[in-house]
Design goal:
GO terms for molecular function: transferase activity. The chain is of the alpha/beta class. 51% of the residues lie in helices and 9% in strands.
């Protein structure tokens, strides 16, 4: 389930944090949706093709958008300054770009080849940053080709898929540090597949979809810090506690002990059982007697049932195994059905004495 963060909760999570959004106009839109969670009064102002700073002094939160529409040497130099220079590293880095490369180079295959070379050169730098910071690479959303302007007609979904495949393959190919990989953010692509038809220009997502992407990004980072009750979508799986481990061992031993004792008991019963009677030369039918059950076997059998019940409840509580959905309580949804039932009860009641008199008269 996804938790809907309020601005106060977002500030508590991101206090004293520096977040950087690095990329093109699509990343800029995500940047605005993200800072609106912190400050809902913010307006989309400033140079569209330039850097945009944001700072919340009450919580010492700094969020910057850096205009790098292409994965090239300039983007590599900026990332390198965080890994090797004296510049302070951001706590969260959100990056992504591709559509400008498709547009400027008219969708040529040479541009895709150069994109692969450039992203290969920055992949080690991003992985190095991922050791101490949270690094997210945003996959490119699909476009609505029918609504694209003539200057953007070369941006096709086929080209975007090729760029996304290259990014995923290169960023996930390194095994030098498997615990600190760059996180590929693909949920935006899935949302865009359903909502891109509502786009105003065929390239940029509608505001509702951008806000959802920003909220998911907030959940990915903050759920493990804030641990909201209804925010189970992005929390890491909690480790087993000592009590859970002891209970697991106890119930496992109980199940094993029950089967062993039951098997031994039934084998002894079969050996002592006589199935034939040769006194008259006729085969005697075996008497139907069930083996007596010992107290220990009954106790272990009860523990086995309890263990299965506890395992069922444990599995049902695992959000990473079974999907959950958000459920909201409202006074109207609770009281209207109750009032409806009470009204029906008032109008559809009869005196029991009168009913009994009618029944006896019929009989």
């Amino acid at each position: 389930m996804m938790h809907k963060y309020k601005n106060s909760e977002a500030k508590s999570c991101l206090i004293d944090k520096h977040i950087v959004f690095l990329g093109d106009s699509r990343i800029r839109q995500l940047f605005y949706s993200f800072i609106k969670i912190i400050n809902p009064q913010i307006k989309e102002e400033g140079n569209k093709h330039g850097n945009i700073p944001f700072e919340d002094k009450s919580a010492s939160i700094k969020v910057d958008f850096l205009w790098y529409p292409e994965v090239n040497g300039s983007m590599r130099q900026r990332i390198k300054s965080w890994t090797e220079g004296s510049v302070a590293k951001p706590h969260i880095i959100v990056a992504g770009a591709a559509t400008w490369s498709i547009k400027i180079h008219n969708g040529s295959n040479e541009a895709l080849t150069q994109y692969k070379i450039n992203i290969t050169s920055i992949a080690p730098l991003l992985e190095k940053l991922a050791k101490s910071s949270d690094v997210y690479w945003i996959l490119q959303d699909p476009v609505y080709e029918d609504m694209l302007s003539e200057s953007r007609k070369m941006i096709t979904n086929e080209k975007i898929d090729a760029y996304n495949e290259a990014a995923v393959r290169i960023l996930n190919s390194s095994s030098r540090n498997s615990k600190a990989k760059v996180k590929v953010f693909s949920v935006s692509k899935l949302i865009a597949q359903e909502t891109i038809m509502k786009s105003s220009d065929g390239l940029h997502l509608p505001e509702s979809s951008r806000d959802m992407n920003a909220m998911i990004l907030m959940n990915v980072y903050c759920n493990k810090i804030m641990k909201p009750i209804d925010g189970s979508c992005c929390q890491p799986q909690p480790p087993l506690t000592l009590i859970q481990k002891l209970a697991f061992c106890f119930f496992t031993l109980s199940i094993i002990g029950y089967f062993v004792i039951s098997l031994i008991h039934r084998n002894n019963y079969r050996k002592n059982k006589s199935c034939t009677d040769l006194e008259i030369g006729e085969e005697k039918k075996p008497t139907i007697n069930t083996p007596s059950v010992s107290t220990l076997e009954m106790l272990l059998h009860c523990f086995c049932k309890l263990g299965l019940i506890m395992t069922y409840f444990y599995l049902c509580d695992r959000a990473n195994l079974f999907m959950k959905e958000n459920k909201f309580y409202t006074h109207s949804s609770f009281f209207i059905p109750i009032v409806y039932i009470l009204v029906l009860g008032v109008f559809y009641t009869e005196n029991t004495k009168e009913v009994m008199i009618k029944l006896t008269s019929y009989l």
